[in-house]
Design brief:
The chain is mostly beta strands. It has one helix and six strands. The strands form two sheets. Strands 2-1-6-5 form a four-stranded mixed β-sheet, covered by helices on one side. A two-stranded antiparallel ribbon has the order 3-4. Strand 1 (14-20) and strand 2 form a beta hairpin.
Length: 108
């Protein structure tokens, strides 16, 4: 699949799941547009589009915990991205390693 075949939403965005490349740990979910995707491919670090701030952000640029891209994948429909990274520190803005730390539980 090529980047031209990706399906961005009406706002020009596509969801991106970020995963630690060697453990499979899901670290975060963020949004990319065509430009942040291109920046990610060109620089080898993750770039996202902030919907709340309406600006680009290079993950870890402020904290020093830059995510180094190892692999970049699109799903079968081309409407979601998976980026496998080497993330040296916390990926969550709360300081947690992963944004996924709130267990909801399942009733079986």
């Amino acid at each position: 699949m090529t980047t031209d075949e990706l399906k961005f939403d009406a706002q020009g965005l596509i969801p991106c799941v970020v995963q630690q490349y060697d453990t499979g740990e899901v670290l975060m979910v963020a949004w990319m547009n065509a430009e942040s995707l291109a920046l990610t491919q060109q620089t080898g670090t993750t770039w996202f589009w902030s919907r709340s701030r309406q600006e680009f952000w290079n993950k870890g640029a402020t904290s020093g915990n830059m995510q180094q891209v190892r692999e970049l994948w699109a799903d079968c429909d081309g409407d979601t991205l998976l980026v496998k990274v080497d993330s040296p520190g916390p990926a969550c803005h709360t300081g947690a390693r992963s944004c996924f730390f709130n267990e909801l539980g399942v009733e079986a």
